[in-house]
Amino acid sequence: MVVVVYDIPDDKRRVKLSNFLEGYGNRIQWSVFECFISLNEMRELYQKVKKQVKPAEDNVRFYWMSDEAVSMTLTIGSENPEPPPKYYVI
Amino acid sequence: MVVVVYDIPDDKRRVKLSNFLEGYGNRIQWSVFECFISLNEMRELYQKVKKQVKPAEDNVRFYWMSDEAVSMTLTIGSENPEPPPKYYVI
Predict the structure, then answer these.
(1) What is the pLDDT of residue B30?
(2) What family does the Swiss-Prot or TrEMBL record give for this protein (chains A, B) (predicted)?
(3) In whole angstroms, what is the distance from residue B21 CA to residue B69 CA?
(4) Residue B67 among known ligand-binding residues
(5) pLDDT tens, A49-68?
(6) Cβ B4 vs Cβ A3: under 8 Å
(7) How many angstroms separate the CA of residue B90 from the nearest CA in chain A?
(8) Residues in chain A within 8 Å Cβ distance of B59
(9) Of A17, A21, A29, which is closest to residue A79 (Cα–Cα)?
(10) Which residue in A31, B1, B23, B36 is a FRET match for A62, CA 20 to 30 A apart?
């Protein structure tokens, strides 16, 4: 799992990034996403996000977490990280 | 390392928590701290924070990361996680 946290003062860029990240994972807090993607996918996501933010003004961090670490997550006021279902019954 | 992220609408509680967390690690973003503490210390911190927030209104998450995972962190606009020096030369 990858935790993405960001501080982006510019409204337009912030909304654009959060919309973009909706395609990768669950929005957990105002500027925190939990994305169940691989380490390589995290690196690819990082490259894509770099193109839409301004390092001089914006702050984005990508934390990689193993399944074991994810299981140790502690939460107050919300559910534990929930990986998407492995398959859907249609 | 432990990443603590929080969404706390109430100004007083939010400021109180961030002041409290200053004693445990580095403030990275508006509501994100990186704390170089052990897993057990994370559990102790969790219990202490539980006493000063309201689960019905507040959202706090504690992510445990191994040293290896920390080294894979990717950042835009800020430095990589920096563990405190192991010793100080006086």
Answers:
(1) 87
(2) Belongs to the CRISPR-associated endoribonuclease Cas2 protein family.
(3) 22
(4) no
(5) 999 999 999 999 999 999 99
(6) no
(7) 34
(8) 28-29, 75-78
(9) A29
(10) B23
For chain B, the domains span: 2-69
CATH 3.40.630.30, applies to B2-69: no
State pLDDT tens for residues B72-90: 999 999 998 877 766 656 6
- How far is it, in rounded angstroms, from Cα B87 to Cα B55? 38
The domain A2-71 is placed in CATH, from the list 3.40.120.10, 3.40.50.300, 3.40.50.1820, 3.30.70.240, at 3.30.70.240
Partners of B74 in beta bridges: A62
Show the tokens assigned to A3.
């935790």
Written as six digits, the tokens of B4 are 């603590």
Rounded Cα gap, residues A86 and B69, in angstroms: 24
Kindly report the CA angle at B68 between B61 and A68, in degrees rounded to 5? 50
Q: Which residue of A has its CA nearest to B64?
A: A69
